[in-house]
Amino acid sequence: MARQLLQGIPAASNPDASARSIFARYNNSTTPGGSRRLASQLLDEIKAMRQHHHPMMDVYVSQTNMAFWKVVMQGPPDSPYSRGTFLLWIEIGEDFPRRPPTARFVTSMLHPNITKHGRICHPIFSREWTPTLRIHQVLEHCYGILILLEARDAIDPLSALTFWSKAEEGKREVERYVVHLASRSRAQHKNDILRISTPPILTKTELPFLPVARTG
What we know:
Blueprint: H1 2-6, H2 15-23, H3 36-51, E1 57-62, E2 68-74, E3 85-91, E4 102-105, H4 135-144, H5 157-165, H6 167-181, H7 186-194, E5 209-213
Antiparallel strand pairs: 1-2, 1-5, 2-3, 3-4
Protein name: UBC core domain-containing protein
Pfam family, one: UQ_con
Keywords: Ubl conjugation pathway
């Protein structure tokens, strides 16, 4: 079933056609509230995502709720997270773009700006949000904190200070976390996201997805 649904999706070189192809798979209930305004907004976001595809990310949109996306993010080179691959989800509410989307890391990680429940503490989700920002920019900021933490928005300022003052020790601890918790490849994540082994259940973990932007 998943393979059949993926047939005919145009290549990334034609983002408008690809976005229309994805949009055509939805009915009037494309969003939690059935909002055609939000559905149109999300169509634009999908087009922008393909036009500004980040080579270190694979993005998938739910076929049953196009406001819910999954993202597979490769750790930045030359960072303590470089050997890891991280899964996160992003949910776009009916009040978007007046208010920011919600994003959570599913893969556990050690980071001063990410809670144990995956909440991302970054100003783009609060005081720095503006309605002109796009989802691909939000994801770029999520990627950016794996390179440089946001000290002002650290979950615990003391732990952030320790993280930096004992940089080598902190780096080794992060690398241990990555090896144990983030060692799955992008291909493995892709298979998990696209595989439908049972009838889909409308939860955040078992929605069937379509690829929006991915490498390989």
